[in-house]
Each structure stands twice: as structure tokens, then as C-alpha cells.
Amino acid sequence: MLENETKEQLKQYLALLESEVIFSACLDQSEASEKVETFLTEVAAMSDQLSIETKQLLRTPSFEINRKGADASGIVFAGLPMGHEFTSFILALLQVSGRPPKIDDSSVQQIKQIEQTLHFETYVSLTCHNCPDVVQALNILSVLNPKISHTMIEGGMYQQEVDEKHVMAVPTVFLNNEELASGRLSIEQILAKVAGPLPADEFETKEVFDVLVVGGGPAGASSAIYAARKGIKTGMVVETFGGQVLETLGIENVVGTPYVEGPQLMRQVEEHVKQYAVDIMKGQRAQTIQKKELIEVTLENGALLKTKAAILATGARWRAINVPGEKEFKNKGIAYCPHCDGPLFKEKEVVVIGGGNSGIEAAIDLAGLAKHVYVLEFLPELKADQVLQTKLHSLSNVTIITNAATQAITGTSQVEALTYNDRITNEEHTLHVAGVFILIGLMPNTEWLDSTLDLNQRGEILVDDHGATNIPGIFAAGDCTDSVYKQIIISMGSGATAALGAFDYLIRQT
């Protein structure tokens, strides 16, 4: 089952096991159980620290990872942890064996202080690049607190369960049998949901920063690195480190890196930031910013941070189409990531809204899974690169509809249909589909700045060639600004520009 190259890599990790680990497996005579048994047998044969036993678990096939002689870890994999989840499996092995997880001390203390019994279940797709972050975070909670347990459920192997629970997006997390959340979550966001946000008094001891960066995407990370390299006190307010890039699977235009996946790139970027003395405050959102004697940033939890200069790098999010049904059916048939959620629509009919590069790339990916894909474009022609359009036209199960104005998305508990108007004939049409993928560009995350800074009509922050805004000492970078092109490499460059601009501003103050 495991390729030789994968085995060689796995051997290196198995050498790091701190103690003996047992796979407690629940299997039967089914084909699915045979696959899981083969996988576990191959892995166990690679280290004398690993063994297999049988155990009754809630799902068959599934297996628990336990340290020999210790209480059950509560970490269960229901299905095969392959694809993107193979890393989750390796990390669970190491952490159950005794290797400490690499998270902040404050998060460790928060996890250990949780007193209620929590059982998490996460439905995943093995092609989802966001799922492992959630699985790994919940596994860490289980390792550190015996009152917490977590089961990863591979949707392809448990399709009936997925259908019964109306799981229409991955990852979807259930807590104690109630749906908790859907989509990407950081460990800080999970803790905020189950234990509440960090109180404001946790931030009272923070000294005045020289530069405070708001945002943790490419622009924010670049700003922090360039500021810290100047030897000045630098902080970061970060909701989720990585930003919109975490939604991107294949990246092929970062100079010097022919191919990298978004989550991998931002993990490398975060490690780079951590090489410097940057105070990273994760799981936090800025609520207001004001220029007084110093610049004051108030967080949503009420904490007040003070800084001599600030760099806003809050990025952007997928733009909404603002039609009836969009909010109601989000993650119930409405999706934004074909790589993550595409497998849930296998042999079903779906719509992709958007004729730009993102939309057409999504349609091409979905055509390999879905029964039929409809592409809706508001304009008379698609806007995607010609090479993508040529590929799209070659696919027999794709229908392209231009001059289409989406009117509504309807259904009962999940998406069942989409209605659009033909802008030429004004005729109304209905498509009976199970999924709607919306990819029509980005919207800047600047609502919290309304009436504070000068913005353009699109809500983007206006900046000069130093990254400066209309308020002295406040700079901005990346996709939240009026930068003409929204690209990772451009965001990184604008982050560097803003940091250098902020440093130049600081050294000229008396």
C-alpha cells in the first residue's frame, strides 16, 4: 500500500518515537477493513516500537493510537489516514509516544485547564488541504487533556454517515454529536469556541510596540520580518496565521519555488517569522485603531495594544454574490474550495459561478468528479487565461453559460437548485444542482476601518509608494490595499515596503 519513497520517509519519523505505541484496531471482514489492516500492518512492521491489538470502537474500520501501558489517548482514525492526512497520522504517532506538540505555552495551559468532557469528530476528505490543520489541532487537544477525545472520519469510507448528517463541506467538526463548525480552524479558534477567548487582562503586561502588524498572511509576515530585522520591538495580531493563502492548493509563481501548496508555504513563512523576536498574538481580531499620542489598537476581546507605528495587512476574503440562499446554505452545498469539497459532490451536478482563472480552474477540477458542471459567467465572455478555456472546452461534462445573472439558491436542508436570468433575453432558468462553488474574486477585510482611514470605492486602503495611509504612523500592505494586482509575491513585497516605510517614519520622530 505504501510506496517505497513514503516508507523511507516514514522510517525517519518512526526513529523519533519516544516510547512504544499500540494501534488498537476495530476491524471486520469488509474490504474497507482489509485496507486499514494492510496499512497498519505495513507501518507496524517498520518499527519494533509499534504493535497492533484488537479493540471494540464506535466505528468499523477504525483504530486508536495509544501509548503502551498508558490510558487511551482518545485519538481515533476512522478510515485510512492517507493523502493530506498522512501527516496527521505521523504527528499523532509522535505526540502519543511522548513528543510534545509544537504550540505556544499559553495554548498548552488553556488546553490543560479545560474541565468539561469533549468528544470531537471531524469529517474530512483526503484531498482537502485545510482538513489536516483541524485534525492535528484536535489531536493535540486529546494528547494534552485526558477529558478530550477526537475521531477523524474519512468521508469517502463513511459516505452513508456523511449523507445522514448532511455534511456538505470539509472539514466539518462535531462536538458531543452537535455540529460545531465547518471550514478551516486554527487551534486558537477552536479554543475560543470551547473555552472562550483569552481575556483582556492577558494583554495588560504588553509593552508599547515600535511596530504592530495586524494580519498574518504574506504581507503581514513580510512586514514583521522586515521590522524585526531592524531590531525594533515588533508584534503581530493574527486571527489565523497564513490568511487567504491557506485556501490555495497549488502555487507555481513564487519566484525560486516552482511548486508549493498554500498551507506548506505559510508554515515555512511562520517558521521564518519565529526566527525573530516577534510577539505573535494568535486567535485575535482587531476591532478599532486610533491615532492618539500613540497608535491604539483595540481587540475584539477588549484588550488595548499601543504602538508607535502600525501596519495593517488584513488581506481579503472570497467575494459574495449576495443573493437569497447564499448565507442559508453556506457549507450546505455552497462552497469556495473545489480541492476540499469537490469529493463530496462525486457524481452530482454542480455550478461554478465565475469565469476568471479561479472559477475555470475549479470547473476543470470538478469535472473529474461531478456528473456535470455548469459554469455561470455574468459577462458575455469568460475572463480566464486562454489555456484554461481551451482545457475547459475539451471537457464533455461541462456547460458554459454566459450573460447569466444569478437570482437565488434554493433548497430545504441543503442546496437543491439555482435560478439565473439570461441578461440578453431576460428569461429565467433553473438548474437542479447539489452544489454551488462561488469564485468571483476577493473583498478586502476593511469593514472595521470604516470612517477611520481613506478607502476607495471597493473598500481598499489607499496607500502611497511607502505603504503609508492618510494617518501618520499607520501603514498598510497586501490585498487589503489598492494594489492593482493581488498576488502572493506582490503582497510580500508590499509588506517589506510598509515595514521599511514604518521604520523610516519612526527614526524621523522626535
From TrEMBL:
<dbReference type="GO" id="GO:0050660">
    <property type="term" value="F:flavin adenine dinucleotide binding"/>
</dbReference>
<feature type="binding site">
    <location>
        <begin position="469"/>
        <end position="479"/>
    </location>
    <ligand>
        <name>FAD</name>
    </ligand>
</feature>
<dbReference type="InterPro" id="IPR036188">
    <property type="entry name" value="FAD/NAD-bd_sf"/>
</dbReference>
<feature type="binding site">
    <location>
        <begin position="349"/>
        <end position="363"/>
    </location>
    <ligand>
        <name>NAD(+)</name>
    </ligand>
</feature>
<feature type="disulfide bond" description="Redox-active">
    <location>
        <begin position="337"/>
        <end position="340"/>
    </location>
</feature>
<keyword id="KW-0520">NAD</keyword>
<dbReference type="InterPro" id="IPR012336">
    <property type="entry name" value="Thioredoxin-like_fold"/>
</dbReference>
<dbReference type="InterPro" id="IPR044141">
    <property type="entry name" value="AhpF_NTD_C"/>
</dbReference>
<dbReference type="InterPro" id="IPR023753">
    <property type="entry name" value="FAD/NAD-binding_dom"/>
</dbReference>
<feature type="binding site">
    <location>
        <begin position="210"/>
        <end position="225"/>
    </location>
    <ligand>
        <name>FAD</name>
    </ligand>
</feature>
<keyword id="KW-0521">NADP</keyword>
<keyword id="KW-0676">Redox-active center</keyword>
<dbReference type="InterPro" id="IPR044142">
    <property type="entry name" value="AhpF_NTD_N"/>
</dbReference>
<keyword id="KW-0274">FAD</keyword>
<feature type="domain" description="Thioredoxin-like fold">
    <location>
        <begin position="124"/>
        <end position="193"/>
    </location>
</feature>
<dbReference type="GO" id="GO:0051287">
    <property type="term" value="F:NAD binding"/>
</dbReference>
<dbReference type="InterPro" id="IPR050097">
    <property type="entry name" value="Ferredoxin-NADP_redctase_2"/>
</dbReference>
<keyword id="KW-1015">Disulfide bond</keyword>
<dbReference type="GO" id="GO:0102039">
    <property type="term" value="F:NADH-dependent peroxiredoxin activity"/>
</dbReference>
<dbReference type="InterPro" id="IPR012081">
    <property type="entry name" value="Alkyl_hydroperoxide_Rdtase_suF"/>
</dbReference>
<dbReference type="GO" id="GO:0016668">
    <property type="term" value="F:oxidoreductase activity, acting on a sulfur group of donors, NAD(P) as acceptor"/>
</dbReference>
<feature type="domain" description="FAD/NAD(P)-binding">
    <location>
        <begin position="209"/>
        <end position="494"/>
    </location>
</feature>
<protein>
    <submittedName>
        <fullName>Alkyl hydroperoxide reductase, F subunit</fullName>
    </submittedName>
</protein>
<dbReference type="Pfam" id="PF07992">
    <property type="entry name" value="Pyr_redox_2"/>
</dbReference>
<comment type="subunit">
    <text>Homodimer.</text>
</comment>
<dbReference type="GO" id="GO:0000302">
    <property type="term" value="P:response to reactive oxygen species"/>
</dbReference>
<comment type="similarity">
    <text>Belongs to the class-II pyridine nucleotide-disulfide oxidoreductase family.</text>
</comment>
<keyword id="KW-0285">Flavoprotein</keyword>
<dbReference type="InterPro" id="IPR036249">
    <property type="entry name" value="Thioredoxin-like_sf"/>
</dbReference>
<dbReference type="InterPro" id="IPR008255">
    <property type="entry name" value="Pyr_nucl-diS_OxRdtase_2_AS"/>
</dbReference>
<keyword id="KW-0560">Oxidoreductase</keyword>
<dbReference type="Pfam" id="PF13192">
    <property type="entry name" value="Thioredoxin_3"/>
</dbReference>
